[in-house]
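agent> Task received from the user: take the single chain below, predict its 3D structure, and emit structure tokens. No templates, no multimer pairing.
agent> Plan: (1) validate residues, (2) run structure prediction, (3) serialize to tokens, (4) report one or two observations.
agent> Step 1 OK, no nonstandard residues flagged.
tool_call: predict_structure(input=
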Amino acid sequence: MAHGGNIRKFQKDTGTNTPILDFSASINPLGFPTWLRAVISRNISETVHYPDIEASDFTQAAARALKLEPAEITPANGTTELIFAIPRIFDVNQAVIPEPCYIDYHIACKKAGLEIISLPLSPDRDFNLDYDLLAASLCTPSLVFIGHPNNPTGSLLALDKMEKIIAGHQESIFIIDEAYIGFTEPTEKLSFKKLLKKYSNLIILRSLTKIYALAGLRLGIALSCPELTSRMRDALPPWSVNTLSQKVGTRALQDSAFAAQSRDLMSSLRTEFYTELNKIPELKVFPTSANFILCQLLCNLTAPELFAILIKNSIAIRDCSDFKNLDSSYFRLAIKDKAANNRLLEALKTALHPDSNRATINPKPTPSLMLLGCSSNAGKSIIAAALCRILLQDGIKVAPFKSQNMALNSFVTRDGLEMGRAQAVQAQASRLEADVRMNPILLKPNSDTGSQVIVMGKPVGNMRVKEYITYKDQAFAAAKNAYDSLAADYDAIILEGAGSPGEINLKQHDIVNTRMAQYASAPAILVGDIDRGGIYASFIGMYETFEEWERELVKGFLVNRFRGDASLLTPAHDYVRDFTGRDVIGVVPYLKNLGLPEEDSVSFNDNFIPHSPKDNDPLDVALIALPHISNFTDFDALANEPEISLRLVKTAADLGKPDCILLPGSKNVIGDLKFLRQSGLAELITAASAKTIIAGICGGFQILGQTVSDPHNIEGGGEISGLGLLAVTTVLALDKTLIRTEALHLPSGETVHGYEIHHGKTAVINEDIIFSSSRPGILGAGTDRLWGSYLHGIFDNDAFRRYFINTLHLARGSQPSTAIRYHYDLEPAFDRLAATVRAAIDMKQIYRLLEL
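)
tool_result: status=success, residues=852
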């Protein structure tokens, strides 16, 4: 039998296992509904029993959906089973078949021994039926097989004209095949179903495999009067419809929304595809109401020759040479999604104009790869940095990208724009200047349900969750524009997702995970943290939540932070491959003391503090873990010093008697001041100031002052007293200061570099200025023992950090040093990371995915 959709034969023709873009079978471009896998999984245990021989639930569901009686419905293993059964059960000697048509009408009638009268459908009439010719052919009782819409022409029948013929020839049986009626509009207005109650010589075939994309399950129904239904049911073999098909069909018939969505999508795709095909002068394109289009070649090329050309490019079309009344100039095209349709259009133009130097309508996108995570902090950011450095080492101009980052840490670019610090680190791994296009959307949480929204480096306002969901279309448009601009400047892009792409409640609004990968045409790797446990269940569970298009994106899995012998993981890797068809492409070991900033997060815990080897009796530095802590990576360099033991303090009981207390940045200074007082930490910090060195960065600087006022309701409004340790006051302004800054630290004489991110405007009442800069405003104030500064990244300066550590030694009475013992230089860390990851994963596979 000659049919479309024979993928095995197509791959044999190409001589490879390359995925085939199949335009030969006309299946819903949406694919099957998202509930399909859940229905199959839920009912798989029932396959140990024989199916319900009457398919009762399915039949009743069909009756309810179509507003018929169960006695008017015959379920079958696809409409093809019905097509082959019907010619054997009626006492007629001939079949009348308008052709071209679905070839199995002819084959089924021939096998049943019927004489076949073929009524030619003329291309001059766009293959529309000649109703007078049909009526004249029915002098003898006949079976009449007609597609509505016709396959392969896509033409519809005129309901009124056909009703006259059905009414006037009661001794003939009319089989109206509505397999593709679901793609027409409006479906029920066009259907012959309304005639069932009037005529007992009418059978309507409906296929669920087309509209619900269930071709591999096989499921169809016949609609007819009870007498014809009884005869058809008797003719079919028992257990014709298997258990899973029954369950899926029952669920499908309840999903009218999916059918409507499919019809609406097809309407727009059909119009656009038909219009573009008509622009090709070598083609005659016939009007269609279905989800396929019949074309005729008007050049020397034949359809079999065109098929041979296209299949070499892994594209299959339906050569229509075997259809009655069509010759070798005809072929049929399924209507698929826009990207696939455009790829076919380009391939057609190339095949018909092989010597043309015409620019492609779909230029190949910039090579890209997306890293998705089983959870937040799975290590995506670090792996992205590693791949950026590896590609750089291999001579590829690469850049990082994350469309949306929700983070406590941020960075200011040289042109004064704010972005996620993780992407700034990845840019550094790529030896690039941080560019806001690498992270066009930054969300900085300032409450449990709200964030400051920063788009292309500038704040657009504070939004609660529902407000941001409403805004997301605008945000995603900005992200796509940023990606397009960035991708045009580089040879490859490493994309990073956020959190988990399997969060069901968030997926419909996703603009950072699979939706972004789809937009960028980026294959994806799912990264999991084995140190947390349950990684393989996470891989499989995550994969199970994906829709079909998302599964196509995911090309493999990556195990991160493994401690031990990786060979012991082989059985788990085999299991994942058997379950998903995807390989684990690498096992990255747990990297201790890497020396790179941790990935961005909206949480904060001990894992974010580097644990480098320490001296005996190191200096005890307490970092206050504010609920709205921001830019905690300000203290990475300090934490890596062998003389410093940096620890988090979350409660008053944790504080103890440290050598130094650090107050970090805050996204909600007013809220964090309330926390300090409610927790008892405010009182302890104030009391410790007599003997303990205290320093605050940005929000911490403001907290140390006399008052913080919020006249513009940026953090909830009002005014609150600070800890009163510095004689400064702060007013939160509407405009946000975003600037890279160089200043002179007056007590040490050291030049320091950093960046500012703050709404606060701080005024000195009676306090020493400790930073000198050409830029207006106060950068910091205080003394060596008690000070605050707006400079993020100040501890990254080796000489200043040495000076600060020495002030701690002097306050304790221990010996200071002039030697810089730790150089804050990320280059060795990037190279070490790259070497480790290169050895741990299949880089050949990475390059295959990137097509580099």
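agent> Step 4: summary for the user.
The first strand starts at residue 21 and ends at 22.
agent> Done.
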